[in-house]
Amino acid sequence: MNSYVSTGMKLLRHLDQLKKFQEGEKIFPISLQVAPTSRCNLNCSFCSNANREKHEDLDSRKIIDFIDRAKPLTVEWTGGGDPTMYVEMNDLIKYANKRGFQQGFITNGIQLVEKIPSLKVLKWIRISLNSLDYVKDIEIPKDYYGTLGFSYVINEKTNSNIIVKLKQYIEKYQPKYVRVVPDCQTTSEQLDQRNEVYSQVVQGWGSPVFYQAKKYSQPKRCWWCWFKPFVLHNGYVYPCSSVVLNDTSERTFHKKFRWFSMEEYLEAIKYPPRPFNSDNCSSCVFGQQNELLEAVLNSEMEDFV
Predict the structure, then answer these.
(1) CATH value at residue 205
(2) Separation CA 91–CA 36 (nearest Å)
(3) Helix H or strand E segment including 97
(4) Could you read off the pLDDT of 220-265 as tens digits, one per residue?
(5) How far is residue 77's CA from residue 25's CA, in Å, rounded to a whole number?
(6) In what helix (H) or strand (E) does residue 292 lie, and over which residues does it extend?
(7) 77 with 49: CB under 8 angstroms?
(8) In the prediction, which pLDDT does 29 show?
């Protein structure tokens, strides 16, 4: 699981950035998430951004300028809506590839092959098989040699027929991994219950399927935002893609969670990082990442390992 999803462990592969962080120097993002559009061709019941405007697109020139100046190691194209619905998505992928950025792509897969002919340059693609909750079939790229992964959110539409179909897609397309997660539109107590039940069920599905438990916490300070910021289609940078899970988010990227405008962010990274105010983040799912980063800053008895 640590190889394919965000658990924070991969931070240990970036000791140079952690050293700069520890010593109070300025740092650049390791991975930049960009959601270029709010448009989507599905209306999933569990969508955490369900109450968004569904016609917003971020100007491609602003995206290009931003990634050039932010200098991330990698770029992840994601939602918002679904990135295949962004008219200039293919052009952005080609530009980022020309500039040498490694790229990942998260999509429901319905229009992937049709809309993204340059997908071969992507380092990885993760397809949400929840599309099968709504459509009969999706087309999976057959000549793609990057890391192909599937994900699935267990939700109210999940039934035995869907599970059979999921297993058929896994058998046919042989993804490197299949991540199964719970519907997080619930309380912390209910989420714990779902984790307990679903983890046992999914364990029986066998490799390459794994269950990624989601657990809510409230960080004392949020540092994760500096390593993996999230740029939304409205032109604002958010501390992460999961602020929509918080109690007061109203199932949208609420303005109270805005971190910086895109231009303000580019000014902010010229200086040492300061933590994001996490007072409203009662349902943070990046507790492990923030705990690791707090440990990097902890200087008391550090030699007694």
Answers:
(1) 3.80.30.10
(2) 12
(3) helix 89-98
(4) 999 999 999 999 999 999 999 999 999 999 999 999 999 999 999 9
(5) 28
(6) helix 287-297
(7) no
(8) 96
Query: Tokens for 227?
Result: 């390593």
What local confidence, expressed as pLDDT, does residue 42 receive?
Answer: 96
| Number of domains within the chain | 1
User: Taking the CB of residue 83, how many other CB atoms lie within 10 A of it?
Assistant: 28
What is the C-alpha separation between 109 and 139, in angstroms, rounded? 7
- The number of C-alpha atoms within 13 Å of 233 and in the hemisphere containing its C-beta is 24
The reported pTM is: 0.95
Which H helix or E strand runs over 153?
A: strand 147-154
pLDDT tens string 31-83: 999 999 999 999 999 999 999 999 999 999 999 999 999 999 999 999 989 99
The H helix count followed by the E strand count for the chain is 8, 10
* Distance of alpha carbon 76 from alpha carbon 60, whole angstroms: 15
Q: How far apart are the first and last CA of the chain?
A: 26
Using an 8 Å Cβ cutoff, are 122 and 104 in contact?
yes
| Both structure tokens of 13 | 């592969």
The verdict on residue 2 lying in a domain is no
> How many Cβ atoms sit within 10 Å of the Cβ of residue 266?
16
The string of DSSP letters for 254-273 reads -GGG--EEHHHHHHHTTS--
CA dist 115 and 211 (Å) reads 30
Report the length, in residues, of the chain.
305
Domain containing residue 108 = 9-296
Report if residue 109 sits inside a domain: yes
Q: Is residue 4 a part of any domain in this protein? A: no
Angle in degrees, CA 297, 67, 71, rounded to 5: 45
| 129, 158 Cβ separation under 8 angstroms | no
Spatial contact of 149 and 125, defined as CB atoms under 8 Å apart: yes
Nearest Cα neighbor of 225 from 168, 268, 177 is: 268
The amino acid sitting at 99 is: R
Task: Give pLDDT, residue 300.
Answer: 79
Residue type, 199: S
